[in-house]
Amino acid sequence: MRPFTKHTGLAAPLDLANVDTDMIIPKQFLKSIKRTGFGKNLFDELRYEDEGQPDQECDGRPIREEFILNQPRYKGASVLLARQNFGCGSSREHAPWALDDYGFRSVIAPSFADIFYNNCFKNGLLPIVLQTEEVDQLFAEVALREGAEIIVDLENQTVTSPSGTQFEFMVDNFRKHCLLNGLDDIGLTLQQESSIRRYEEKRMNDAPWLFLSRGQ
Amino acid sequence: MSGKTLYDKLWDSHLVQQRDDGSALIYIDLQLLHEVTSPQAFEGLRIAGRKPWRVSSSLATPDHNVPTTKKERISGVDGIEDPVSKIQVTTLDDNCNEFGITEFNMKDIRQGIVHVVGPEQGATLPGMTVVCGDSHTSTHGAFGALAHGIGTSEVEHVLATQCLVQKKSRNMLVRVDGELSPWVSAKDVVLAIIGAIGTAGGTGYAIEFGGTGIQSLSMEGRMTVCNMAIEAGARVGLIAVDDTTINYVEGRPYAPKGAHWDMAVEAWKELVSDQDAQFDEVVVLKSEDIKPQVTWGTSPEMVIAIDEAIPRSEDQTDPVKKEGYARAWKYMGLEGKTMLADITLDRVFIGSCTNSRIEDLRIAAQVVKGRKVASTLKQAIVVPGSGLVKAQAEKEGLDVIFEAAGLEWREPGCSMCLAMNADKLGNGEHCASTSNRNFEGRQGFGGRTHLVSPAMAAAAAIAGHFVDVNEFVKH
Question: Name one GO molecular function term (chain B) (predicted).
Fold first, then answer.
């Protein structure tokens, strides 16, 4: 996994609460068996006027001019400002894959849905929860000046607004450690192989019916 | 020291390793797999040269994008007309063959929606941890099992290590007290709960559903309630084990037998919250207050009882709600409409992991029996949750009742719930749907979904618009 340490980037404000994973990446694009290539269909229904199809070229499609990612001033944005309960709905990891593929490195919101929040960390995308007032301030500052950048510092757990105000955020130590070092979760868990085997032995004794092999 | 909640007990019995920062490794007993969220996980295993830790803990079946017409289904995977869907379903078959995982493929009568198939086979058992790359995995909590929806990276992690990295959730109890009114179902109960606590109300919590209103539900009904825990923001929904649970599990193909069965039943009786257990949050609803529910907007929390007026944006004070309501009104085309009955329906969908079990189909059939679908409707489809549900329904003659009433009787799968196959809504069409999400575009580009119970969907199919099923059946 690509590590995340510190990132400075253009912020795009998505001023909409309860953005669900169907909005982030509609179902027709979930038929892919790859992890990449979802960026062009990120927010497909908000971004384009027509119904997108998998494997379709997106360059000539009619766009919704008012949508933030279609506004020239937010071209190249890598920090997404969002509202409450971002990422609610399905468990599709295609949502963080699409955000990542588009070029986002971090999403800042007052709250996230659990599964989405969790999925982000597996993909080097940093979800940050700030107080509602702090998010409000970021929205206001980003609207004020074209090209406004936000600094996200994972090591120090701070977000710096375009005007230089610093906000602190919380992150679990283990997730932080993995993200800072780009560590593969599976490799780390497999280091605990003996603990897992010990658990299995005990459990097989207490609840043997859980370990019966199934026929076809 | 206070007692433990059911969630605490399940957590403790699966804890492999606790870490200092609150995260933990928990052991997974059952992983259900389907075609949409597993290909990248298997690919990850291949790239790293890893093997599944314990293949007998996995069970797979294609469901999300299998076609549901007889024409396409007759020749199994080869009959799928959409080439992209076909590749995904074939990939699941290939991966299961390569890694030695049991799969109910498209030609197997046991194929169906994972959350219908697991319990039906007795693969889902009380006291287990169950995961699947699908948010509606919370369904299995109806068995007193700890069931999480997970992402694809976690699917790979569980395949490779049999464990999941998790942080313990807080405990919430949602109690529904008293006897439910006639024609008020599990679906109405859970929609009313979501209406009360909101789509983020359960975020960070494991919700245990209790009270007499829940205890009186069948296993099918309990699965419907736990299924939609995620729509209230909770990854986990739970219901304590009782005789209803044990009777349902007994004799199923994968359920323990003989001495193992006796031993298991003894253990399962402990799967209830202790009398003195402390919950971080308690919400109480009265059954008598719950009427048939219908969603009017684009979030499951935008829900009202059938006899209520559709709420208006201008009556809202919270600015976020105001904006959300205005957007939903526009998307749903509600201008000039005050009551749910004012909405003309285009399609009706009875199915999905929320409501496609035999009990759901029986109730829907009871409502439409001897009646005809409204001529204004473009389509009404009934999609059973599995091949076995379909066979059982046909044995009872339900298919004949549906077809005589003008509803289409389909092959099992997720179908119009998320429109990954050919079953979808057209732009601007209104649908009475027994599924779980009414998000923008969920059932098709520009489609307008109204979530309801099977009985309400069936009554709406006949009337052509929403009606109170309780009144409807009297005439």
Answer: 4 iron, 4 sulfur cluster binding
